[in-house]
Amino acid sequence: MKLHDLTLSGNCYKVRLLAALAGIELELVPVDFMGGAHKRAPHTDLNPWGELPVLEDGDVVLRDSQAILVYLGARYAGEQWLPRDPLGLATVMQWLSTAANEIQHGPGAARLVDKFGYVLDKADALRRAERILGLLEQHLAHNDWLALQHPTIADCAVFPYVALSHEGGMSLADYPQVRAWIDRVKALPGFVGMPGV
């Protein structure tokens, strides 16, 4: 199984993190992002969107980190990481949507501005980051994990860009529950980091 990967991408890291925690073997295929390799063949033959990550598992080719987490969770990681019951599954999916929306457009976007020079509305990204970090703080004041009473793919989806908030100019000093959750994730057996985490 191959993951077309960029070391500094939080979205790629989500997949690497789940694979490490669940004991799923991945062959990492580095993509020359700065050289634009993700925007031309052969990468666009796999993913016409020209984005990372991309997972190849035999004949299966998937784009989008949340979709890849669902696939790996359902096919390889087991119900601990992606429950089958309707309520458990829906509870996890709520957080995947949060990762793709509030997290991506808040701390994720602020990081794109500061670390990679993207031309985005930094003030808006910081407002969004402050809102979602406040909501996470409230949730984690009563829960050790995001979706259930144990780690799931929800934690893998949300973790990277929250843990990397400082790279977008967002301090976690006022969010002790969020920091404690980050420490819990880092303490999981098999945890792997990435630059900045």
From TrEMBL:
<dbReference type="InterPro" id="IPR036282">
    <property type="entry name" value="Glutathione-S-Trfase_C_sf"/>
</dbReference>
<dbReference type="Pfam" id="PF02798">
    <property type="entry name" value="GST_N"/>
</dbReference>
<dbReference type="InterPro" id="IPR010987">
    <property type="entry name" value="Glutathione-S-Trfase_C-like"/>
</dbReference>
<feature type="domain" description="GST C-terminal">
    <location>
        <begin position="85"/>
        <end position="197"/>
    </location>
</feature>
<feature type="domain" description="GST N-terminal">
    <location>
        <begin position="1"/>
        <end position="80"/>
    </location>
</feature>
<dbReference type="InterPro" id="IPR040079">
    <property type="entry name" value="Glutathione_S-Trfase"/>
</dbReference>
<protein>
    <submittedName>
        <fullName>Glutathione S-transferase</fullName>
    </submittedName>
</protein>
<dbReference type="InterPro" id="IPR036249">
    <property type="entry name" value="Thioredoxin-like_sf"/>
</dbReference>
<dbReference type="Pfam" id="PF13410">
    <property type="entry name" value="GST_C_2"/>
</dbReference>
<dbReference type="InterPro" id="IPR004045">
    <property type="entry name" value="Glutathione_S-Trfase_N"/>
</dbReference>
